[in-house]
Amino acid sequence: MIKTAPEKSPIPPQNTGGSMAIAQEIMRGIQRVVDKFGSQNSMAAELGIKQLALNRFFRGSNTGYQDVCEWLDKLDARLLWPDQVPSNQRAVSFVSPEAPAEAKGCVSPDAYRAIPLVSLAAASIVGLIPDSKIDGWHLVSQNNPALMTRNNLVCCLVESGRQGMEPVATTGDVAVIDRDDIRVSNEKRGNIFLINDKYDGICLRRVRLEVRGRETLIIVYADNDSSPPYSVDASAGLDKEVPKVIIGRVVYLWSDLSKK
């Protein structure tokens, strides 16, 4: 009898239609990571995976699920089941065995959620942030209108120097960043994002879109003269260019007004 190695089970190609939502989500997620690395070759080299298999995957060819699982493992991707808390957030539990009887039950921990406090550099990590990079936790109300529909949130202390953006965000302020929100608008004032700046690295900057004739530009600038404004040509497509620049949007800011 001749024994043969078992064949790798293929995952469906890209043209799966609407009935394979999880497969489509995997494809979109891996594409976002490729955009962060800049190219398939760069991602394959950095993670030590087969570039040929990655190329077949994006061309819609059948790909062994063992290959895809290897990629997801190296990206520290995780399945999120319905009974799990999304992202880095944690459930809140108040424990006070000596609390007075009249205080018990007046505040429910279900009214809050815990958001990890990390450095600006740690916030730029793709995927789940390792526990070793989490410096603490901030409690936020579940009913805060600015945050209640957002899941992939982190808190960051605004750092000194060029990484901040005075006078709006100054040293010691706490910025809440939605890492799923990288949408850029053409509003004239722009929105504040955590970005990978070509001059100052990981920092806070305003970002907006501007159309000049046939050109679509991503305009990046600070609210002061500490860093020069510049533009990124997005004519090749926003889906490709925006993830290279933007890490997430600042959606809330705790600020010490005594310093302003």
Q: Identify the CATH class of the largest domain.
A: Mainly Beta
Query: What is the overall silhouette?
Result: globular
Count the beta strands: 11
Write the CATH architecture name of the largest domain: Ribbon
Structural class: alpha+beta
The named CATH superfamily of the largest domain: Umud Fragment, subunit A
What is the total domain count?
2
| Strand order, sheet with most strands | 4-3-5-6-11-7-8-9-10
Beta fraction of the residues?
A: 25-35%
Low-confidence stretches: 1-19
How many helix segments? Answer: 6
- Helix proportion range: 10-25%
Query: Gyration radius, to the nearest Å?
Result: 22 Å
What's the main sheet like? 9 strands, mixed
Question: How would you describe the overall organization of this protein?
Answer:
This protein is of the alpha+beta class and 260 residues long. The chain has two domains: 10-74; 109-259, Umud Fragment, subunit A. The protein is 22% helix and 25% strand. The protein has helices at residues 21-37, 40-47, 51-59, 65-74, 120-123, 238-245; strands at 10-11, 63-64, 112-118, 136-141, 153-157, 174-178, 191-197, 201-212, 215-221, 230-233, 246-254. The strands form two sheets. Strands 4-3-5-6-11-7-8-9-10 form a nine-stranded mixed beta sheet. Strands 1-2 form a two-stranded antiparallel ribbon. Mean pLDDT is 79; it is low at 1-19.
